[in-house]
Design a protein that fits this description.
- The complex is a heterodimer.
- Chain A is an alpha/beta fold.
- Chain A contains eight helices and 16 strands.
- In chain A, strand 14 and strand 15 form a beta hairpin.
- In chain A, helix 5 runs parallel beside helix 6 and helix 6 runs antiparallel to helix 8.
- Chain B is built from 21 helices and 15 strands.
- A five-stranded parallel β-sheet of chain B has the order 3-2-1-4-15.
- Chain B is an alpha/beta fold.
- Classes of the chains: A alpha/beta, B alpha/beta.
- Chains A and B meet through helix 1, helix 2, strand 7, strand 14 and helix 8 of A and strand 5 and helix 16 of B.
- The complex binds flavin-adenine dinucleotide and FE2/S2 (inorganic) cluster (FES).
Chain lengths: 263, 491
């Protein structure tokens, strides 16, 4: 049982929860995730650790209410408990000094991007962040990003905030403007696919963090499998980060819809 | 266990009297008991346990078949050498609690083993009836279950005697049969035992793998609660190697570690279409249904309820999956196996039950491709027909494709059950631990100690996919060796 100690709405459907999990807070690194279960009949769902405070023994999760389980979790309040939080899972992000890193975040993918931005900056890189969303109200964590990145570019589909356009428009502008040594992109699968196509054109090494369907999160079931470079990989143990240019996004998009009709 | 022990038990007065009471010639005339089973039509509509257990009369009668051999071969067939004639003769004289006590001298989980052990390959295969008389063996497994169930249901389940607490902390990784039996033995010897489990439930494969209709969870829970009552602490949601490290375990003051992390990694066949929607491992399927209760309406976890389900493989896991699919609502549930039925590793009983339940067996068929629709959902499987060739190194006749004999059948769900590999989490997380090519932890077979002084291991992480009884036996042996090492200040 893990107590919720803080709750904040980033937008109508995106909630930040700070949860007690002392052991995880101590051992987690950027890129790790946890598996959460909201109650006795709850589903096991993966959530990236956005931040952690080892001293207070807490981790921060950012959840977008999209399905039955995420809605249940978002409805919990301070003082309530998650029945299970297990982790940290997956491989940590490989952080090194490469020069300029372009970080593209879309939707709720912005939350897991934050610790990666922090870590790349700390390692001495120039970090340019693009935050993209449909409309102004859905842009989250802007302040925290600004505190960590060298530059933050906002893109909205409807032009209500920042520049009008897709994340790929913003990314291409940066790539044409300056030398980008590496790109990290986290967001909806379809967005990651198009960013990946773009950076492939410019031959920029690109890392994606994938959020597939999972059950155990420890390599036991294979629900999370995807194809990378022609080989089957388990996202929960081999990932969640992969070389974007090797990922079969079409297959992943398909597999993500496995249970759509049943919800 | 020595020959003298067996002889001494056999020489007790009451047993001599029992032997005299009935002549062997009368004993061997009695037919082997048939356990009542739920009707197949009824049982595929629910999850109730299929085998109903023996009545007291049945158990008494079956126990009287046992000839109380002077050199009981059945005990050699049992991986943990249960004192089989002693417990059976206790049943014959009506001392059921005493029979249960005898079982517990060497087996930590008799109610579980009585249900899931492949007795036909172990104790019962060595029975005098089978070997010398060419008759059906004494139903040792049924009697084991009877005694264990009687004890549990009597409410007189005695906690074993526990030595005075010695204050020494021991850690266990994984709560399957290996971890549970190790924990029980060490608790009895006075140690403070903590079991760390990665999942949210305690019990390992007994909970997430083996279905309710073969092994009810309530039976496993009784054993777990007994361990709790003996002072064993269980910590769920804690992955050793992730949540806490090997070093953390030392820092927390644990003196010895027993790794029983199982063979959790599912294998796939790497054939085209295996990542289509509706194709999954048996681990995923069974975990969804058993651990997450996905087939129940009030569960948040979904599961695909296929109408035409193909299960690939011929082991217990395949049988459990296909029988589960029947219960979840499949109209056509098929086993697809590349060898013949005789080569199937599953228990005979499971094959028999599956057939009764209407499962189709497509033996000598091997999947070569899955086909899908525009949404990426599996719609068909292409099967290569096989024939049996010459026996291979393992003595099994190896299947060969019949050129050109390919068949396509419609399916909407495929469950791949072609084996598991050892869970690589611990081997990857602990530096210096010696690992075999197959990914199992290498241990001394006597002591179960690894190349790291304070780390012992047992069960499927050492053997690859094996059995409950072997896992349990490993746990006991490791406990004995670790206890000795600690007492001799070698740890
Ligand atoms: C569907 C199915 C049916 C079977 N039927 C039979 C049968 O009829 N008869 C029979 O004898 N055998 C059967 N078996 C095999 C038998 O269940 C196994 O051999 C046995 O359970 C192995 O026991 P174990 O204790 O080694 O591991 P497991 O039971 O696999 O338990 C390992 C536990 O460790 C946990 N774990 C793993 N890594 C970590 C970590 N790093 N930190 C913390 N915890 C961890 C896992 O979550 C798991 O709970 C069956 C297996 C399956 C899957
Ligand atoms: S979630 Fe089960 S293997 Fe990855």
């Amino acid at each position: 049982m893990n107590k919720i100690v803080e709750k904040e709405y980033f937008s109508e459907n995106v909630v930040k929860l700070v949860v007690e999990a002392p052991l995880i807070a101590k051992s987690r690194k950027a890129g790790h995730f946890v598996i959460v279960r909201s109650g006795e009949k709850g589903e096991r769902i993966p959530l990236t650790i956005a931040q952690a405070d080892a001293e207070k023994g807490t981790i921060t999760l950012v959840i977008q209410a999209v399905g039955k389980s995420t809605k249940k979790i978002c409805a919990l309040n301070v003082g309530d408990y998650l029945s299970d939080v297990v982790g940290p899972l997956g491989q940590a992000t490989h952080i090194e000094k490469v020069g300029t890193v372009l970080c593209c975040g879309g939707g709720v993918g912005v939350a897991p991007l934050l610790p990666i931005v922090e870590a790349f900056k700390k390692a001495g890189n120039r970090v340019v962040v693009i935050l993209a969303a449909r409309t102004k109200d859905l842009i989250i964590l802007e302040e925290q990003m600004r505190a960590n990145a060298d530059e933050v570019i906002i893109m909205t589909d409807d032009g209500s905030y920042g520049k009008k356009g897709l994340v790929t428009n913003g990314a291409e502008e940066v790539i044409q403007r300056e030398k980008v040594d590496m790109c990290v992109t986290i967001g909806p699968a379809i967005m990651m696919k198009f960013v990946s196509l773009l950076t492939k054109k410019y031959e920029i090494p690109t890392v994606v963090s994938l959020n597939t369907i999972m059950v155990d999160g420890t390599g036991m079931c294979g629900a999370c499998r995807i194809t990378v470079g022609g080989k089957t990989k388990f996202v929960c143990v081999d990932g969640p980060e992969f070389d974007a240019h090797q990922v079969d996004f079409d297959e992943m998009l398909m597999r993500l819809s496995s249970y759509k009709e049943m919800e | 266990m020595s020959k003298e022990d067996i002889a001494a038990q056999r020489a007790t007065e009451w047993r001599e009297a029992l032997r005299k009471e009935k002549k062997n010639k009368d004993r061997i005339e009695i037919e082997r008991v048939k356990m009542r089973e739920l009707d197949p039509e009824y049982r595929i509509t629910n999850n109730e346990e299929v085998n109903c257990g023996l009545t007291t009369e049945q158990a008494l009668r079956e126990a009287s078949r046992c000839l109380d051999c002077p050199d009981p071969q059945c005990m050699q067939g049992c991986p943990v050498n249960i004192f089989i004639p002693t417990f059976i003769k206790n049943i014959e004289r009506g001392e059921f609690l005493e029979a249960a006590k005898t079982l517990k001298m060497t087996s930590a989980l008799p109610a579980v083993c009585g249900r899931v052990c492949p007795q036909e390959k172990q104790c019962e295969s060595k029975c005098f009836y089978k070997l010398k008389l060419g008759k059906e063996p004494v139903a040792i497994g049924y009697l084991e279950r009877f005694a264990a169930d009687y004890e549990r249901e009597s409410g007189k389940m005695a906690l074993p005697e526990i030595k005075e607490k010695n204050g020494i902390k021991i850690a266990v990784v994984g709560s399957g049969p290996a971890g549970l039996s190790f924990a029980g033995e060490m608790a009895k010897a006075g140690y403070s035992v903590t079991v760390f489990e990665a999942l949210h439930e305690i019990g390992g494969v007994l909970k997430y793998g083996i279905p309710e209709f073969r092994l009810p969870n309530s039976i496993v829970d009784v054993e777990i609660n007994n361990l709790r009552a003996m002072g064993v602490e269980f910590i769920a949601d804690c992955i050793v190697g992730k949540t806490i490290s090997y070093d953390d375990i030392h820092e927390m003051g644990f003196k010895g570690i027993f790794v029983a992390s199982g063979a959790g990694l599912p294998r796939f066949m790497n054939i085209p279409g295996e990542n289509l929607i509706g194709v999954m491992s048996s681990n995923e399927y069974l975990t969804r249904v058993n651990l997450m209760c996905a087939a129940q309406d009030d569960s948040d976890t979904p599961v695909i309820k296929g109408k035409r389900v193909a299960v690939i493989g011929g082991g217990n896991t395949a049988m459990d999956s296909v029988r589960t699919a029947k219960r979840v609502g499949a109209e056509r549930a098929m086993i697809i196996y590349r060898r013949g039925e005789d080569e199937m590793p599953a228990r005979r009983e499971e094959i028999h039950h599956a057939k009764q339940e209407g499962v189709e067996f497509l033996t000598l068929h091997n999947p070569i491709e899955y086909l899908g629709n525009e949404k990426g959902k599996v719609t068909a499987v292409r099967l290569q027909k096989m024939q049996l060739g010459e026996p291979d190194a393992s003595g099994r006749r190896s299947p060969e494709p019949i050129p050109g004999a390919i068949e396509t059948i419609e399916v909407d769900e495929v469950i791949v059950s072609v084996g598991v590999s050892p869970n690589p989490l611990i081997p990857n997380a602990i530096k210096g631990l010696e690992i075999s090519k197959k990914g199992t932890i290498i241990v001394n077979e006597e002591t179960m100690r690894s190349d790291l002084n304070d780390l012992y291991a047992g069960g499927d992480i050492v053997r690859g996919g094996a059995t409950v009884i072997l896992a349990m036996g490993d746990g006991r042996r490791a406990a004995k060796a670790m206890n000795e090492a600690i007492r001799n200040n070698k740890l």
